[in-house]
Amino acid sequence: MRYLKIGLTVLVLVQSACSGLSSPASPSPGAEPVAETLAPMATAAMELQPTATASPEPSPTPTPAVLDLEVLEWAEYPYANLVDPGNADTRLEILVRNPNDFPVRVDGAHTELRLLNEAGEVVYTNPNPTLYIWEGSWIQGGETASISACLCFDTDGVARQPWESFEVLAPLEVAMGLAYTTDVDVNIGEFFSLEEAHLGGEQLGAEISLVNTSAQTLSSFEVRVIARDVNGQYVGVAIHGSFADRDSAGNSVRIEPGASGGGIVVSEIDYVDEPLRYEIAAIGILAQE
Description:
Elements: E1 5-7, E2 70-78, E3 90-97, E4 104-106, E5 112-116, E6 122-126, E7 130-132, E8 138-139, E9 144-151, H1 153-156, E10 165-169, E11 172-174, E12 180-181, E13 184-188, E14 192-193, E15 204-212, E16 218-228, E17 234-246, E18 252-253, E19 260-266, E20 277-286
Antiparallel strand pairs: 1-17, 2-3, 3-9, 4-8, 4-11, 5-6, 5-10, 7-9, 12-20, 13-15, 14-15, 15-19, 16-17, 16-20, 17-18
């Protein structure tokens, strides 16, 4: 098996993420045609000439209304191994869904997560949540995706206040021209202690295998592995990133149909110490001709 070199992408924003979700403006109607007035005829003998009739312009295709992301599940966890034991910052792990039946692109530069108190007032804002979405940019129609955000009251020097709810503000637009395939096969082995396996680090790792089962050439695989606890509660993202093949000089190598590879990946979840079960989602990004 050829081993792919792994580059995990950290999606900061995400958030394209979290400003108020707004639907794209409807297209402006075309200008009304201007009626031309014929000058009166000079004599009765003058013959009227037929005037050219302009062909009607095709009506623009209406832009579909874009629905906001839906929050499905969320959980709050303390950070592991903080240098300052007095720091009480926590992390919010959120599972969202694209309710539209078409792909949407997320404006990560304007994504926000806001904490609200009982009166609905904003008591804290994180303008840079991490969005675990394809190519850091888009979500398939009807698909779930993940968001992680730090509730960094202490780190930001903000007075800690109680909160009752939150909102994710993520401007969306219809995603056009996506070139990908879902015909990929990705498997994750059992997670094990990297330290006990003498591979370095105190986190968990697992072996990943990837196969291009499509009939098309790929530039990379995109993989997301989420975790749930024994009760089915959403915990967060264990593995996320872009997996590509490179030659000895570090240049990208096209992944031909049937090509496979793999390697060891490290879990991003170090804030829970209990058995977890994992759910894998993956796509292949088509190579540009």
